[in-house]
């Protein structure tokens, strides 16, 4: 899940592949390019739809071809991350590849099939185009690595790792974010913590008790219920989707102070698989079960911006008339454009505010 323009390095976590394997893309028809009306009519009013959805890359036919826009193909894109130059990085779970898409939609492969030979968990990128990935490198071992723009892999840390004299391992369900100093923050769903990994590979518990809870506080005095997705803003504040019970956003300052942002109007937000933040402080989340994309204001008000809830053939056009099929990760570029890994349609969708 995961990812603002600060997500430039690619971090890959291979469990996400397993989650999506059971929901394989059905059909191989090309992406629908029809444009729906930009207004939504209700019984008494006509409301202008402020968002437009298009296909940025992908043909809708399963494949691994490089190319421009819809001449390129993907199998099952699950993660996306934007760098500071407007490039988008994609993890394709169907082939275990990392793809790069330029602002002009030129798709190339920077990490070919089977270089990462295990289960992918998460990915992000930094402003310079370095990718960070977390993946399972064995039955129980996870590896956090960074990948240069040319595809060179450098390992940051593998588990088991030691924190305060105790051995720990990452869980199988993870999301990651990276700050401007190169620290990686690992959102560990099953252990209810946010790990911090320094560029040198030193791991500490940044926030959480390793027990489920809802307490605000600093560092290990805080607790999380079901932290599934994480992103970071330009000031180094983290935002975590905590989906246990009443779903909320947890904000974590660079000093580790955790506070809760309640969400209003959250109907339809289920199983969040990606979170991203724009320069204005708005958060965006993908709900893969409801096949919808939501905007959450700084005060916690949720607004549906794209997706009807159907999961049929992809439809472009007005946001509220668009159709996705199991949307995975989401990211935002420096211009505020959104990019969604439309996993089961094999597409990268772009959402632009009119």
Give the gist of this structure.
The chain is mostly beta strands.
Structural commentary:
With 354 residues, the protein is an all-beta fold. It contains one helix and 31 strands. Strands 28-3-31-30-29 form a five-stranded antiparallel beta sheet, with no helix packed on it. Strand 30 and strand 31 (347-353) form a beta hairpin. The chain is globular and about 50 Å long.
Which short descriptors sum up this protein?
354 residues; mainly beta; five-stranded antiparallel sheet; 2% helix; 43% strand; globular; disordered N terminus
What is the element layout, followed by pairings?
Elements (H helix, E strand, L loop, with lengths): L14 H7 L17 E3 L4 E3 L2 E7 L9 E2 L8 E6 L5 E5 L4 E5 L4 E6 L8 E6 L5 E6 L5 E6 L5 E6 L2 E3 L2 E3 L5 E5 L5 E5 L4 E5 L5 E5 L9 E2 L8 E6 L5 E5 L5 E5 L4 E6 L9 E6 L5 E5 L4 E5 L5 E5 L10 E2 L8 E6 L5 E5 L4 E7 L1
């Amino acid at each position: 899940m995961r990812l603002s323009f600060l997500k430039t390095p690619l971090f890959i976590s291979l469990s996400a592949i397993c989650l999506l394997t059971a929901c394989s893309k059905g059909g191989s028809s090309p992406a629908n390019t029809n444009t729906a009306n930009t207004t939504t009519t209700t019984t008494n009013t006509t409301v202008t739809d402020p968002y437009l959805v298009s296909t940025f890359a992908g043909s809708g036919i399963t494949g691994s071809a490089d190319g421009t826009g819809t001449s390129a193909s993907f199998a099952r894109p699950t993660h996306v991350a934007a760098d500071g130059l407007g490039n988008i990085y994609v993890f394709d779970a169907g082939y275990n590849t990392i793809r790069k898409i330029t602002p002009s939609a030129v798709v190339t492969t920077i990490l070919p099939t089977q270089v990462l030979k295990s289960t992918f968990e998460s990915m992000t990128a930094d402003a310079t185009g370095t990718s960070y990935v977390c993946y399972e490198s064995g039955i129980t071992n996870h590896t956090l690595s960074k990948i240069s723009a040319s595809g060179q892999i450098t390992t940051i840390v593998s588990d088991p790792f030691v924190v305060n004299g105790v051995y720990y391992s990452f869980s199988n369900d993870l999301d990651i974010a990276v700050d401007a100093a190169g620290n990686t923050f690992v959102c560990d769903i099953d252990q209810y913590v946010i790990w911090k990994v320094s560029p040198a590979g030193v791991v500490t518990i940044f926030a959480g008790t390793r027990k489920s809870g809802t307490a605000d506080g600093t560092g290990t005095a805080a607790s999380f219920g079901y932290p599934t997705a994480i992103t970071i803003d330009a000031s180094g504040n983290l935002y975590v989707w905590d989906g246990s019970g009443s779903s909320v956003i947890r904000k974590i300052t660079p000093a580790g102070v955790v506070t809760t942002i309640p969400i209003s109007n959250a109907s339809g937000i289920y199983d969040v698989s990606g979170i991203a933040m724009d320069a204005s402080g708005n958060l965006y989340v993908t709900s893969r079960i409801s096949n919808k994309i939501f905007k959450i204001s700084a005060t916690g008000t949720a607004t549906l911006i794209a997706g009807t809830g159907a999961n049929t053939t992809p439809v472009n056009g007005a946001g509220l008339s668009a159709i996705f099929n199991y949307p995975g990760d989401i990211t935002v570029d420096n211009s505020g454009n959104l990019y969604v890994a439309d996993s089961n349609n094999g597409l990268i969708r772009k959402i632009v505010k009119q």
